[in-house]
Amino acid sequence: MRMFFCNVQGVTMKDATLSAFCDSEENYAGGSLAIARHLANFSQNVTLLSMMGTEYGLREFIEDKMKGVQLELLQDDAFVTPLKRRYLKQNPVRQGVHEALFDELPSQAGSAKTV
Predict the structure, then answer these.
(1) Does the structure show a pLDDT above 60 at 12?
(2) CA torsion angle for 25, 29, 34, 39 (degrees, to 10)?
(3) Would you state the torsion angle of the CA atoms of residues 33, 94, 3, 105, taken in this order, to the nearest 10 degrees?
């Protein structure tokens, strides 16, 4: 998934759509890739079998992000890998609060607590 972080400039007059300036972008290995990565935190033996196309650089990106997961990637020229794009408004306040909440959680090994 590719995340674009944008600042909304306004609404266009003709089509009533948002006009935005993209400040930055980041690529994430989401979907089944994210699930396999999470499972690899609990098991030493995780294998992901998936179908993908032959888009330039995609296999290398996946292999780089999936350390600790055995990959069985089937590639086919006729298959188009679904790639999602998400456009988010830049929000440094939300990101700061998100980080602060994790910093303040109690770290007691072996105990679960509802926050």
Answers:
(1) yes
(2) -130
(3) -20
